[in-house]
Amino acid sequence: MEDLESTSELQSRLSSLSVSSFSGIASKNCDSNLLDRLQSTDLSQPVIYMDNHTKMDDNSNAKCNVQQSTEDQEKPSEPGAGDSQELSTSEKTSDPGDRKALPPLHPASTWTSSALKELKSKLRQEKDSVVTIYRGDIMTVNVPTVPEAKRVCWEFATDGYDIGFGVYFDWSPVTSRAITVHISESSDDEDEDELELESGGPVVPGDVEKGSKSVSNSNLGEILPVYRQDSHLSVQGGSHDFPGEGTYLLKFDNSYSLWRNKTLYYRVYYSA
What we know:
alpha+beta
């Protein structure tokens, strides 16, 4: 009997208690039905879970899109096919090194003769056939081509010492049929080479001792490079067939000599 009374008393006390009797806990009336308070879950509908892998893919795609848009902003616009064609055409037109190649030149025919005294004796009788080339100087004989001949010939000798000799051909149109002689110091030729170099002409560096010479004129072809010839021991001779219209440049080079002047006996003539 006492147990029943204690149980009923406990129930009456519990029924008198409310949520508001405890501090820090707020009461909330739930008027809706229990089924309404539960989420309406239809098990027939698929449930979509947003896992970490999907989020990472979304983030990576977003980063790629941002990076690609940044690259598109920074990347310069590429020219079209027509622009590239116009650019290549203008580059070819404005290229100073794009010059027409010169025709090939055949080598010269050369020979030597022991008739040194006879040639000197004969040339002493002719006007302007004996000249003195001073130390450091270069003498150039300009011989234009003529319709009446087919080749140019030369012979020369010196007293006591050798001299450098070379033959070149200038393809520029002939303006005069006169054979002219030009004597210059090696410094003058160097100045001319510098001017030709500034104007864009090709330069072939060389040395008289090694058998070559600087060629700066873009129309100038080399037939015989400048070599030191033993013209004091034997007569040096040669010839060359005309390759076309132009001017031969026969160079007698004493630029390598610092102390000695050279006495030169020479003659240049045409042959049919």
